[in-house]
Amino acid sequence: MKYLYELVDLLNQYDGSNREMENRIRDLVCYILDSSEYMQIDLYRSIVFEAAQKLRMFGYIKGTNRIAQDEFFYDNLNDIKHSAIQNYYKSKVFGNNLLDKRQKEVIDKFMSLEQKRILVSAPTSFGKTFLLREIIFLNRERYRNILLLFPTIALLNENTESVNQLIQELKLEYKIINNVYSGIEDTEKHIFILTPERALKLLADNANLSIDFFFFDEVYKIDEDFDRNEDSNEKEGEEDVKQDNGNRAKAFRIVLYLLAKSVKEYYLAGPYLNLNQVKKGMQIFLKDNNITPIQIEFEPTSRIEIDAWKMNSIEYHPVLGEIKKQLYAHAGPSTKEKVQGIVKYLQENRLGQAIFYCSTPSNSMKYTRDIIEAFSEEKEKKIPYDFIEHLKKKYNVKIGKSKDSTMYWSLVQALENGIGIHHGKFPKYVQNEVLRLFNNGDFDYLFCTSTIIEGVNTNAKNVVIINNSVGNTTMTAFALKNIKGRAGRYYHHAMGRVFYTDSKQRQIENADDMQLNFQTYDTHPILNADIDNASLDDLAEENRNIKVEREEKFNRNLLPDNVFIKNRLYPRDVQEKYLNYVMQTNVFRKFVGLIGNSSNIRYFLTNKVINVILETFEVTQILDTNKAKVYYSVVSTYSQNGTIGILQYHIGKLQENNSMFEEKIDSAYIKAFEQIRNIVEYEIPKLLCLFESLFQQAGKLLGYNMDDFNLSSVIRFFELGITTELGLFLVEFGFPTDTIRALENKYPSIGKMGALEAATFLSNNQRAMYSVMDAYEQELFKRAMQVLVKRG
Prior knowledge:
By secondary structure, the chain is an alpha/beta fold. It has 35 helices and 19 strands. A hairpin with a 3-residue loop joins β9 and β10 (321-326). The longest helix has 37 residues, at 665-701. The protein is globular, with a radius of gyration of 28 Å. The protein starts with a helix and ends with a helix.
């Protein structure tokens, strides 16, 4: 009862100005909300309601623990007061939703600005995309073309559904486009939902397209120092960045630079950025573009923190204080014993779902096996049998006469034991399904990598930080705060719980904040690609001089701007060198047959044109020799045998080199999926885009008619693995690519149909269609069709 009295006392004193008092009120409210016992008592419920109203934090009473005003007896004056508060904070989009105080302040600030440009830094649960919907709706009459940029395909899909719901329910006249293969009509209003790379292609292919507003998610990804993930390597540091090594930060930075210069209104967002301490380049970017920074530091969810690296661990409870816990049987537990001990503690205390953060995909597999070993018989589980059978059928390689590779694959073993694994190497639809099962409550534990930092929403109440690194690079305070921020999701949980398994994690957390930079504007040397895409006036003196020297050497008659911009991520001198090489008679004639067959995928594959193209990139040093060899092998195998062909190769190599290869099967799956994602779906399409534009330019200069030369069908085949409009929708939704190909081969007529027409055609031939699908794929196809019909 003493905490209730304390809460009432603080509410009587609170005037909105004391941050320390506000945080204490939050902790007390969350503590009460987290107690099922307290939430059965009307007095506690009424005080929590008063607190939520006072703080203007309505997630405390509109989320999982719903508390309505009419539960309590108020006099007319209090009824009017509470109703007035909620009416004032009511969403303009959906009348049943309420904006929290800080959310409304951001919206009001944006709408009041003469130049509507903001950069918002806020905790992970702030609701940045919720605010995006408000902005779109409030400006629906002024915004004709809207561009929303997200870092991953998974986020494109999630936000496509969210925006589509907005359009449908409010009858807005926008057409959603989330790929670069759909046509654009001048008479229509559009919302483009794209990754930075796709946005660059959109801008290059549609020079006259005018964007009225753009949203840029995870803005920190413009800075290589911040953008670390499961692929990061300590050795790939500053020197590689200076060498234009194809890092994604370059794409994020260039597209933001171009959009900020050409679009009048925008909203940039990122978590846990210290906007009061940014580097010189970011300072100049904000000032020159008149961008208003908005710093939100208030965390709506309270968190319990446990120093769980020794036998006698200490729990720091925001209300109850320090509590000693014995998590392990002896001093100096190993990492394996820590993971097992924490799982046992979570189970015994029924503390709910947990995310276990691991530095790499291989670690996520390894720690999962530790849990299976210790707890395989202890919990009644929901097992996704159809999904498991699908994985066994789709990704199995025979080992000898009696063994299957999937017998040793940790993902299958984990799912069979009610545990999830999530990392960026898995095919997109596998990532989606694992996350869906976890959020549906089908299993309690999810072992994952830095993929959880990139805006992936889960229902986890607990986060266990196992490793101190991201990929093979040291974890930063910024990354740790992002991971920690996934413990307890506002509107779903009042309190989260974070387990630190190493004392170094506390040191990392307490280190100085990293300072965000925008390298293009910085005084230090920058990439040639950044220099070539920047205006002279925006560069510091040293970089400006470099640009002037570079410009003097370029031949714009050879490589005009409208050709260069189609592949902005490659510096102009690299493009000119390649163009000169391709124009050589003995090189150009190798591709003459392609001019009349540029959209003929069969011609492209049968004649192994990709191998000849890769050879040109090797000769011109765009690809080094070792990398080129890998690309040849991967593309050739994938073109002939798909995913299973790549898997067979890597599992075969394991058998050759290791007598205990069964224990290392996971590494084969990781390598196979990584090569498909990085090489087939990302690098090859990027190289083909470069070849397409420069070969077309070479042909024009040599007097050939190149009007119909277009490799988009071939590029789409490698990037997405499909050839039809329905296939395009299915792969973006999250559907197995190999099965889509089987459908396209079985029903070639759907190649001439739109997505909805093709879906209707297949539904009318359901029995035959299902002959190429397993039970899981049939259910997934039904879910996809429901989404497609909603989109119209």
